[in-house]
Amino acid sequence: PAWDAAALAALGVGAWAHEALLALDPGLSLEVAERAPSEDDTLRLVLRARDGALIESVLIPGPARTTLCVSSQVGCARACAFCETGRLGLARQLAAGEIVDQVRIAQALALAEGRARRGAPLRNLVFMGMGEPFDNLGEVLKAIRLLTDPRAFRFAPSHVTVSTVGVADKIEAFFREARAELAVSLNAPDDARRQAIMPVNARFSMAALKEALARSLPPGRRVLFEYVLFDRYNDAPDDADLLAAYVAGLRCRVNVIPCNPGPDPALRPPSAERLDAFVARLSGHGVTTLVRRPRGRDVGGACGQLAGMARVRQPAPA
């Protein structure tokens, strides 16, 4: 069985965690349906649930640590213009056990195939796969508690990051219930352009999002803003100025992400020159800025590319 005590012990997960997993639901384990290794050693996994639903996880080796990109839903209702998962609609929520089982499978593969033996063990989890974690927050929080419990999977809370499209009314609850890090997918410097590519902005404006962060961010913590860069859409020097003004006053850093091929052909990655100019301009305002390079793009495992199969659409939650 997937949650067999001996198999878990081989991953360094003890008896207490075995009982906790069984308590979640012993019938929610996943199986590997497809493996797609990338030229850059990233591994995209298609996982099949007991009901036949397909989700994807991505194992990303790095020099300091290996990262697993975890899914929280089957599909997604948020319909961001640049995201393949958003085209699927929402089929159903993942249970906490199904979220945790993605980690179990990845750990077993990393150990069996040596991906974590290159001086980079699997220590980093990012909820940036399929789905909007805040639309399934209860199950996501259950999973995080088990994944960070020193009696179980023992991930450091600072090495677990949950990404949201900006569901502002869930931010306070997230910080109250979880010690994990928060990433906010921003992707535009003003409401008009953000709403054009991210329908969530019609419900939660950028001002409302910033107010929720300013009110809820715990002392000593920082928020990570993710900013996907699109050629001649949000990558001008003036856009960097607007972004710097928006994040001013918040303890934060910004990850700039050149866009990957996605569902909208009009949204293209910027040239290297425009990327460098944007980053330099933003950094010049004193904003801590990093560039996230694509990983797994050749196997459809990069940011915005995860998609299983077509599913019935459901409306986005209010």
TrEMBL record:
Using the record's annotation, list all stretches that form the Radical SAM core domain: 62-298
Supply one GO molecular-function term: RNA methyltransferase activity
Q: Report which superkingdom the organism of origin falls in.
A: Bacteria
**What coarse category fits the chief subcellular location reported for this protein?**
cytoplasm
**Location in the cell:** Cytoplasm
Name any one Pfam family assigned in the record: Radical_SAM
The yes or no answer to whether the keyword Iron-sulfur is present is yes
Q: Which residues form a coiled coil?
A: none
Cellular-component GO terms for this entry = cytoplasm
Q: Does the keyword Magnesium apply?
A: no
Task: Report the cofactors.
Answer: [4Fe-4S] cluster
| Keywords from the UniProt entry | 4Fe-4S, Cytoplasm, Disulfide bond, Iron, Iron-sulfur, Metal-binding, Methyltransferase, S-adenosyl-L-methionine, Transferase
Some GO term, biological process aspect, for this entry: which one? Answer: rRNA base methylation
Protein family: Belongs to the radical SAM superfamily. RlmN family.
Q: What protein is this chain from? A: RNA methyltransferase
Species of the source: Sorangium cellulosum
